[in-house]
Amino acid sequence: MPYFDTASAAPLHPVARQALLAALDEGWADPARLYREGRRARLLLDAAREAAAEAVGCRADELVFTPSGTRALHDGIAGALAGRRRVGRHLTVSAVEHSAVLQSAAALQAAGGAVTEVPVDRTGRVEAGAFAAALRPDTALAALQSANHEVGTEQPVAEVAEACRAAGVPLLVDAAQSLGWGPVADGWSLLTASAHKWGGPSGVGLLAVRKGVRFAAQGPADERESGRAPGFPNLPAIVAAAASLRAVRQEAAAEGARLRGLVDRIRERVPQLVPDVEVVGDPERRLPHLVTFSCLYVDGETLLHALDRAGFSVSSGSSCTSSTLTPSHVLRAMGALSEGNIRVSLPTGTTEEDVERFLEVLPRAVSSVREQLGAPTGATTSAGSASELVLDALGKRCPIPVIELAKVIGDVPVGGLVTVLSDDEAARLDIPAWCGMRGQEYVGERPAERGAAYVVRRRV
Amino acid sequence: MPYFDTASAAPLHPVARQALLAALDEGWADPARLYREGRRARLLLDAAREAAAEAVGCRADELVFTPSGTRALHDGIAGALAGRRRVGRHLTVSAVEHSAVLQSAAALQAAGGAVTEVPVDRTGRVEAGAFAAALRPDTALAALQSANHEVGTEQPVAEVAEACRAAGVPLLVDAAQSLGWGPVADGWSLLTASAHKWGGPSGVGLLAVRKGVRFAAQGPADERESGRAPGFPNLPAIVAAAASLRAVRQEAAAEGARLRGLVDRIRERVPQLVPDVEVVGDPERRLPHLVTFSCLYVDGETLLHALDRAGFSVSSGSSCTSSTLTPSHVLRAMGALSEGNIRVSLPTGTTEEDVERFLEVLPRAVSSVREQLGAPTGATTSAGSASELVLDALGKRCPIPVIELAKVIGDVPVGGLVTVLSDDEAARLDIPAWCGMRGQEYVGERPAERGAAYVVRRRV
Fold it and tell me: What PANTHER family would the database entry show (chains A, B) (predicted)?
């Protein structure tokens, strides 16, 4: 049963499992204690820190272990902002950062600080010049991921780091998705990561802060982890996390190249096998193991369940799979289609056969969902009589508004307008995306009594 | 090799180990995901929450899992204070709470709030009436441990809860040391605990918040754990934590009674076997497995190492074993002797033979440390000629100032004064404690150019 969602959580690496079992016996005591069990625990903790620091490319005393990647980001951002409060209270981030970064930014704004979100291009990549231009004299911190967690696009970290250095702004790099594949380009001031993304256990994140970077840990004081991560350390898990990081790094070059080929195959074949699909993200500058695509006229949750029944575990950035019923902020920032969105992230060891079977199953899964929803097939050929038409899709959820739009577009002549009334958040993203994919013109959006009115001009 | 420091961290319970191994295979995926691995993880998380809630005595939806007991306290206190900010910014705590509570209180004070620390008696127990009197109209929260982590004394939680209820103030109970032994008396509003104290793995704390208690989680928003504990949950460890809590509870009555007998034996025999020892804490209203005593004229760290070499792992609240060179705040609040302090906390399964061997080893260990330090033996018998005497102990660390005091007290006649100049924090606690133990009169303390001047009148 292939599991294709390693970007959420990777199954435990065999080396992690082995290290964890050993550390359960040797490393359960308090490493701050002076007796033999404490000293043994301290030795394990020190060795894990050395190993993790080597993989990160920093000194051991620059790195602390946190309870998760999210906590590393929350506490790292809060500490860096507080450390430079005298400089200002402005934070620069890309628009496609992890929600832990964007929620930290929202907390800063709620507390009276300012945030600039640097937009990304259609592939999800920030432009280094645009990022540099968003640095201000009062910028306390900049944050940029090494690679995107939803679409795999690599960010220009080296150039952005250089711009930050020139501006005297510390750069925090969220390396959660890439650290297992290799170190981050030099030049960062703070770095965060999460062990269960590289096959370590859950409960372990990393926060590295370069010597000389101003940092003031927030919250109540605590002696653990240089005062930067309060609470008893999650020790057996930390040992396992460090051991598996070293193990996956040894396999990274070969396994990365192999998975890159499998992902290339998915990127190439999915649009051939499934009509009306948009493969998103940068085809070259990307994580080796991750690919994301969106399927027109498809309900993401239904597709996800269909793939699950067929034995494939994938995730989705479609609005119907989120608790807030809004599409992924990454797809939104990219302006990509969000309906029928599927992220495939291959764990190490994924076989060619697994991928071939996925490519066999996917077209049937998509077409069955489209049939259930009564999605239109083929191009619009009718002449159309009404010169203008209003489609009331209020109360209908993704992908229904787009399906209904596709069904009525033929009712207006070429040059005619269709106005879609919708209160579904996904419509804002998916109607323009549909226009792009079907050769229609997206005229724009205007406010309406409920939701918004989206105007489309028939072009074909 | 008996490990007698279960109050710091208990070795992993066999049930926890078994549950952890099973959950490593079944519970590594993201419980928020819709595919089968996610659903399996969700089932495990839900079952663990049900089990933990049953042991705590609350509803499952009132309980979240945190990365540690410390984080449960930090986040629980911050959330409860913020939830009642309109009422006021005053916090009432006992003087002997865990440092995570006292550091949260210090953070509140630094942010402009107010804190009342309710003193404890000589046994380390707060008086419920005094606690009630420390509740004010602007008190946002009160916090009281169920039992003390250093001396084992149980606090009058039921009476304090009743007083808090009458005053309309929510009570947070830190149950870290007692939850494995039984549920906390009803009436609490928030409850925290830590799994590695009951034989669960590290990396898991509990925070329960009763329905209806105002709570506003602080820090960046996050969807996990009802928005109260951000970050990917430490799932296999959570499963193991809940399983071992259930297991230790089943053994609690029998094992508690057995360990209580062993601790009674230590409490009775240590003063018989070792001269000049103070056994601290309440002899009756106490945790079953924990006992603490202090040895006059002894360096805590040296004693700890001597016991370690003899095969016994214990902890100490002496100043020389802390990174800040200050004695434990618990011993300070009790006014107990802090030098040569040893905490013994027996893990489940400790045998009578282990305890007997400890009682055999301890007197030799204490006397060897006393010999090394040249500690005085026997009572003061000399007549003394100088009517007043100043002892310069500046720059000398615990227990040297007290040893030197004991050596010179005979140089003044009965009724004469010795003034000890000391800049050692422990002197403030240990000179009065020495006076009490040796029948001398502690006159008081006055400021000095360096440190303080402690005045003692010879009485015997």
Answer: CYSTEINE DESULFURASE (PTHR11601:SF34), CYSTEINE DESULFURYLASE FAMILY MEMBER (PTHR11601)
